[in-house]
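Title: Request for sanity check on Protein kinase UbiB prediction

Description:
We are preparing a figure and want to confirm that the structure record we downloaded matches what your pipeline produces today. Could someone re-run it with the sequence below and paste the raw structure tokens into this thread? We only need the token string, no images.
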Amino acid sequence: MRGPHNIWRLIRTGATLERTGAMNVVLDAFEAPPALRFVARALGLPFKFLGYAGDPSMPPATRALTALGPAYIKFGQILSTRPDVVGDELAIQLRVLQDKLPPFSVEEAKAAVQSELGLPVDQIFSDFSEPVAAASIAQVHQATIAESQEKVAVKVLRPGIEKAFRKDVDAFYLAARMVEIFSPGSRRLRPMEVIEHFDGVVRGELDLRLESSAASEFAANTKNDEGFQLPAIKWEYSARRVMTLEWADGAPMGDNAAIDAAGHNRIELGDRVLQLFLQHALRDGYFHADMHQGNLKVAQNGNIIAYDFGIMGHIDEYTRRVYAEILFGFIRKDYKRVAEVHFEAGYVPADKDVDEFARALRAVGEPIFGMDANRISMARLLSYLFEVTERFGMETRTELILLQRTMVVVEGVARSLNPQINIWQVASPIVTDYISKSIGPKAVLTDLASTARVIARFGPRLPGMVEAALIKQNNPVPPVPNHRLLERIFLAVVLGISVGIGGALCLIIVDMTL
């Protein structure tokens, strides 16, 4: 827990949802049951006057998330790609969070460029436009390099964004701790580890030098991918809070009318965006982890252009094989093998019944096949998956968080292009090809060669390592005192006071009304 002051942040979150009118919108979108609606309104309504007003010109949900800050905006960006989960109306409302947020002034942007690059903007660029896109963390300006007259995009971090994100993430840490303490059944989801992982990702996104490096590595991996291109990084005009890259012209991926007007095949584009993601994740183990419509364009020649490389995902070879086997099993309807893979990888406790788990997976997978894609309720499917994982004691795999989240986002992008897309049919060629290369005689020989290299490198040190492990086993470290009871008491008192204040305010308001 990062401090009790963050309880105030959580209270203002609920209050903001009430004040902006977003509470009902969110509850309706997720088809919240009556009990949850009652609790949400009872806790949020007394503090309504404490909520942020936001921009009244925006729809309620967008207004609330924008007022709450960048971390909430990131969450809204993900939901904007899932009309099958939150409905078409809310998805359209949230889509403006991707690259159409209120910008900061061009003067502030120029001051940041000068501070980072050490020269006046007029000496570096012959022209520097007003913001052309503004997102949660940074905004983009079109400029022309004075020396070469090359058109470029200049990305500049928002002023004070580091402090703002720190405030949001700190409140998330408190929320995660409260979930762990007051909902023991949710501990298997590792909420604290999830927030720690999210925190690490955000810290990387706030240093544009790391984003430039990620873009360079991603470009090297994908340079031969047909129908895919990346803008080149201009290293000499990039720094910690400023990144300059080649300008990318094309139709926005979220604008179907513009894509149709340019003569592109949206069905083919939907298939390709999904297959490219799977190819990058399985083949390279390094993928773009923020592939919403605001970060994608379609070039005049039909290529998909990706940009904004602040969030990149990495998974090791073993995890890739597990993930591919799970997908392959679902594609082949081999639920027994999918269940076995979960057990072999340690995703499900060994004391559970593999056949029973396979039957539960069949209940999840079968509705997907033999049905029109637009008839599948992803919200209900995810709800049932959660019930299954809870029943079998599965824990959240923090190393797969970005992969799972990006799969949801990319599927949403693909469905926005082609609502009839069959995700499993499109994924099958990529997954099958990876399985054939990574699980078989050739893969076994590669694994043996890698193992031999490791043994040769560490062979002389093995006796010492074994001896150190045995000494540690015979002399265990004294256990660290458990402060969970104190945390529980403290949070219970603070929450009791908060609810008490809310109740008192309600009584005062009622009394004044009467």
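Thanks, this matches our download. The first strand starts at residue 125 and ends at 134.
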